[in-house]
Amino acid sequence: MNEGKREFNVPNTIIRHAEMAEGPDLLLVHLLEPHLYGEEYVETMLEVFEYLGVKKYSLIGAMYDMVPHTRPL
User: Fold this and answer.
1) Which residues pair with 5 in a beta bridge?
2) How far apart (Å, rounded) are the C-alpha atoms in residues 66 and 50?
3) pTM score above 0.85
4) Which of 12, 52, 54, 69 has the smallest number of Cβ neighbours within 10 A?
5) Closest CA to 42 of 53, 55, 57
6) pLDDT tens-place string over residues 63-72
């Protein structure tokens, strides 16, 4: 608990809740690409979204593909 609020931290994930005056509240998730078990991690995040009642989500980020980091884009 932090000032009466629950706090949940995963080393590469930050989840914040923004209560909006009008429209739906926002759940802001900042995460880094996992180095291991990426598919399992994504499935777990989707379960968290479902548990929290998330109805829509958008992905803003880099290209998701099997591309070596040493190869030019």
Assistant:
1) 2
2) 27
3) no
4) 69
5) 57
6) 667 767 676 6
